[in-house]
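Task: complex structure prediction.
Instruction: return structure tokens for all chains below.
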Amino acid sequence: MSAKVRLYVEHPLGQGQSVPLERDQAHYLFGVMRLAVGARVALFNGQDGEWQAEVAEAGKRGGVLVCVDQSRPLQMPPDLWLLFAPIKKARTDFIVEKAAEMGAARIVPVQTEFTNSDRIRQDRLQAHAVEAAEQCGGTYVPEVTELTKLGRLLDAWPAGRQLMFCDEAEVGSALQLAQTERGLPWAILIGPEGGFSDRERTRLAALPSSHVVSLGPRILRADTAAVAAMTIWQKALGDWG
Amino acid sequence: MSAKVRLYVEHPLGQGQSVPLERDQAHYLFGVMRLAVGARVALFNGQDGEWQAEVAEAGKRGGVLVCVDQSRPLQMPPDLWLLFAPIKKARTDFIVEKAAEMGAARIVPVQTEFTNSDRIRQDRLQAHAVEAAEQCGGTYVPEVTELTKLGRLLDAWPAGRQLMFCDEAEVGSALQLAQTERGLPWAILIGPEGGFSDRERTRLAALPSSHVVSLGPRILRADTAAVAAMTIWQKALGDWG
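Output:
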């Protein structure tokens, strides 16, 4: 029988491997979920796939799990970054959660000219990405980077990384993603709710690897746009086959 | 200059038409947004397109707007219903908001065998749909229906309405939406977080107009799945051209 509880751990996983639990993990498994010695838990660490593990020791402040067998191999997401301008707290959390579910490899909060927030809680956002990976059955957790200025990011833009750039001002333009080469590294940039500045728009359009796409005739909120853009990309070029 | 504030009203709109405001609308326009006589507001009522209107009278408990000219014609969404099983309050609100932004014509909360909730606040969900339409620039507000049992809905399923049915158990199946006829009425059904029962799954698969689709290799939360499924549909058959 496969475990109902999935847990991300920062520990190597392998046949017979013992995995010590941290205090909050022990509280969750034994206090909240009421698991006892012998119960099954699914573990992943972003590197060794998913393992079925058995509770060997259960305590209030800790415990030990022992890996029994691998239930799924590591499945890396496609090399897709999601860039977005942080907005109100709840929606920023949602964007990170959605990006992890939708299979982003890396989540990059960017500061644009019309972005209000000048700081993020990177650790809290990373925890949301971990939780989303636990929920969605993924074996990989995308890294959430520090808040970076869009201009600085474009100055050092990696050669060859394609950029899909979703602009409200571009309502109606066609999307020809499927005709681009498969297997290239990509990034999707979701604009801030106030839109891009003219300078940013010019700069983005001038980038040789940029692809402007439309997300339909209605204006989407940033969190909706993130899911819609990633759906289009995953269908055309990603792992949604 | 085009108005920044968009307001849904239940009143006919047309050249020179006076539109009396309700108390909470007056509070929003004059108390919160601090608009004065002469200011511009964009109005829509789901039938007459979008109109630029001018504040003619502004009071604490009411006011009058006068329509000046039509800024956009009515744009009906495609004939697409979104059916979903209500989940936790915040995520149910999100699904309704997303469905309105993504261009559903009708939003139908359904009760499945594994749905926990047996009631919804239909009026509150309808208000979310109105707010989403105000935000996204739409000229149409989808109706949110009462909670309906899935079985009863399928018993009376309209002949010819196609059903796109998103099932976690169907990971890997291909999507051939684009080959179906355009212009047909459609519905998208998002399963409950606990999945469909075997009986429901059999019944859905047996429906002559049903199309099972996969939303990639990760398990999506219901609100993410709603946006992803509507994106796929809008791109293939809807108004995203």
